């Protein structure tokens, strides 16, 4: 299996039917979400500036942030 091609650009969608967004969501307290984002970045995943601003959950008791990567598919397989 080949690895997917990722783009971290927030404007990566080009209208191609072979591209799709994959989203990662981190939910918790302000400290928990921000420290997790920085931990992921220290391990090579997603610069903190590319995550969404902190948002409140619908219940309002926690915060969350979303990171979107665009992947390119080849046929029925993800590249």
Describe this structure in words.
The chain is α+β, with helices and mostly antiparallel strands and 79 residues long. The protein contains 1 helix and 5 strands. It has one helix spanning 30-42, and strands at 5-7, 19-28, 55-56, 63-74, 77-78. Strands 1, 2, 3, 4 and 5 form a 5-stranded antiparallel β-sheet that branches. The longest helix is centred in the middle third of the chain and has 13 residues, at 30-42.
How is the secondary structure organized here?
Elements: E1 5-7, E2 19-28, H1 30-42, E3 55-56, E4 63-74, E5 77-78
Antiparallel strand pairs: 1-4, 2-4, 3-4, 4-5
Compute the gyration radius: what is it?
14 Å
Beta-strand fraction estimate: 35-45%
Counting DSSP H or I runs of 4 or more residues, the number of helices is 1
Low-confidence stretches: 1-8
Structural class: alpha+beta
Number of strands: 5
Major sheet attributes? 5 strands, antiparallel
Helix content: 10-25%
Helix-strand sequence: EEHEEE
Average pLDDT taken over every residue: 83
Straight-line N-to-C gap: 8 Å
Shape: flat
